[in-house]
Amino acid sequence: MFSLKNNLPTTFVLFANSLPHAVFVFESPTAELSLESHLIYTNANAHSILDLKPNHKNTQTILDLFPRFQSDGFFSQILHSLEEGKPSRIVISHQELFQKDTSNKKIYSLQTAILTANQFSFLLEDITETVEAMENTDKMLHFTGIQNSRLQNFAYIISHNVRQHSANFKSLIGLLEENLTAEEKKSIMEMLHTSADKLNETIIHLNDIVSIGQMLNKPTEVCSLEKEIQKTLNILKGSLESRKIQIILELESNLNLRIIPVYLESILLNLISNAVKYIRLKEGAFLRIIAFKKENQVHLVFEDNGLGINLEKHGDKIFGMFKTFHKNEDARGIGLFITKSQVEVLGGTITVESLEGKGSTFTVILPDSPDESLYI
C-alpha cells in the first residue's frame, strides 16, 4: 500500500486492503467529483493494475490515471448516478480505461460511491471470466438452436420424403407382381428408376445436412476473398457467358478472411449460381459482388437484377428447406438453407432484400477471425 496522505477511517483502509479488487479513493476540492480530483488512497490490487512504483508522486488526478474519461461518456455516466445519490456501476474494458495499454483484454466493473462530502471511492472488479462465461453460454445456446433446427429438418426429410419414396417403391413393386403386359412392366420400371433417382437426391440432401456439423472439425485457413471469388466465377464461366451476365466486382484490396475453406467455397458457389440460375433478362443482366471489412467483420454483398422474390409472400420461407419460388426445373430449395446454416455456424448472418421482377441482394456478414469456440 502507498503511503498516500489521507484521513480515511482505519476500518475502511483495513476493509479495502482485504478486498480482491482494486480500490482507489479520490478527494475533490469541492463537493462534486471532477476529473481534477486527486488520488489519496490505493490498495495493493490498484498498484498492480496501474503498475505504479512505491516512490510514485501522490499528485495524480482522475484524468492522469484514466485519460479516456476526458473524451468518452463514462465519466458523465458516473456523475449522473452520483448526482441522483446512487452508486455508479459501469462495465469497461482495460483498453477503454487505460488507453496506453491496448494488449490487455480484461473487462472490469467500475463502481463509484460517495464516501464523505468530498471523497469518492472507485472499486475496480475484474469480471473478464464472468463475461467470457456468459458469452460462451450465449454461443452455446445459439449453436444449440442451429443444431436443433438441422435435426428438425433431418427428421422432416426422414419422416416425409423417405417415407414417401418407400411407399412409392412398395406400390410399384406390388404392381410388378401382377399379371402385366411387357409394355406395362416397362412403364413401371421407368417409374422405379425415377423414384430411385429421387431417393438418391434425398440421400444427398441428408448428407449435406450432416456434413455441416462434420465440417466444423476441419481447420480454418486465411483465404483471399478475391482469389476465392475468381475461382468460383471460373467454375461458372460457361453459364455466365452463355447468359451474357456482366460481372461487377467491388472488392477491398488484399481482403483476407480466416474461415473453413470448404464453407467459403460453398457459400460463394450457392449465392453466385443462384444469380445465374434465376436470370431475368436476355440482355443487360448483371451480378455485382461487393466485399469490404468493417469493425472486424467481412461484408459480402451479392446484387443481381434477376427474377427477384416477393418477400411479403415468401420472406419467412426464403431460407427454409425445399422452399422454391420460381418454376425452374433445377430448383431444389436446398442451397439457401445450406448457405444460411454454414454462415450461422461460423458466427455470421445472412439477409436478403428483393423485389419480384427487379432483382435480389444477399448480404453475408462474417467475423474476419472467428473464435475457435464457435466450432462446436
From TrEMBL:
<keyword id="KW-0418">Kinase</keyword>
<feature type="domain" description="Histidine kinase">
    <location>
        <begin position="157"/>
        <end position="370"/>
    </location>
</feature>
<keyword id="KW-0597">Phosphoprotein</keyword>
<protein>
    <recommendedName>
        <fullName>histidine kinase</fullName>
        <ecNumber>2.7.13.3</ecNumber>
    </recommendedName>
</protein>
<dbReference type="InterPro" id="IPR052162">
    <property type="entry name" value="Sensor_kinase/Photoreceptor"/>
</dbReference>
<keyword id="KW-0808">Transferase</keyword>
<dbReference type="InterPro" id="IPR003594">
    <property type="entry name" value="HATPase_dom"/>
</dbReference>
<dbReference type="Pfam" id="PF02518">
    <property type="entry name" value="HATPase_c"/>
</dbReference>
<dbReference type="InterPro" id="IPR005467">
    <property type="entry name" value="His_kinase_dom"/>
</dbReference>
<dbReference type="GO" id="GO:0004673">
    <property type="term" value="F:protein histidine kinase activity"/>
</dbReference>
<dbReference type="InterPro" id="IPR036890">
    <property type="entry name" value="HATPase_C_sf"/>
</dbReference>
<dbReference type="InterPro" id="IPR004358">
    <property type="entry name" value="Sig_transdc_His_kin-like_C"/>
</dbReference>
